[in-house]
Specification:
The protein has 9 helices and no strands. The protein is mostly helical.
Length: about 190
């Protein structure tokens, strides 16, 4: 029953995101549309921001599912960008209703482990300490977040295939050189 209620909250929240900016969505309006009590909402979520965080994690998880390995990360990024293009009202309503700091924090937390895993996979067999791997991953994460924000600011009017393929080339060269450089400094 609890999972069913949580699914209803998430689905109705997504419907509301299609209709209005995130900062216009209230818990009282959401619970009314879900036909649940405020206590039921607060049983599942601390506040509207924790609901947004959960929605983002699930939304992104569904997009990148099975594509989070080194061999498929470009597919995951392309799938994300195509989904953004397919749901521009949701993307714009989420971004318009949040501060830049909150957007960046969300993007950082959602992509941190992903980029670390990708860099760690690429460095397999190398003798590189964890801090160096995390530094390389952080650089990639910063680059990707800038790429994603530019994509949104350009109203998603980008050739996804070419843009991601170009980004992939830059990432591949950077990660390879960074791993080689980090490995040389250790020995």
């Amino acid at each position: 029953m609890a999972n069913h209620t949580k699914r209803i909250i998430l689905e109705e929240f997504q419907c509301m995101l299609r209709e209005m900016p995130f900062d216009k969505i209230t818990v009282s309006a959401l619970v009314k549309r879900c036909e649940i009590s405020p206590n039921t909402f607060y049983y599942h979520y601390q506040d509207i921001f924790s609901l947004l965080d959960d929605w983002l994690v699930q939304w992104l998880g569904n997009i990148i599912k099975g594509r989070s390995t080194l061999d498929h990360w470009q597919e995951a990024v392309k799938a994300l960008l195509y989904e953004c293009k397919a749901q521009p009202q949701i993307i714009n309503h989420v971004l318009a209703g949040l501060s830049r700091e909150r957007i960046e924090r969300a993007l950082f937390s959602l992509s941190d482990d992903w980029f670390y895993d990708l860099v760690r996979q690429r460095a397999e067999g190398e003798t590189i300490n964890d801090k160096k791997l995390r530094d390389i991953a952080a650089f990639c994460r910063y680059a990707f977040i800038g790429f994603f924000l530019q994509f949104v600011w350009m109203h998603m009017a980008v050739d996804v295939e070419n843009a991601v393929d170009e980004l992939s080339g830059y990432f591949h060269c950077f990660v390879q050189a960074a791993i080689q450089n980090a490995g040389q400094k250790i020995t």
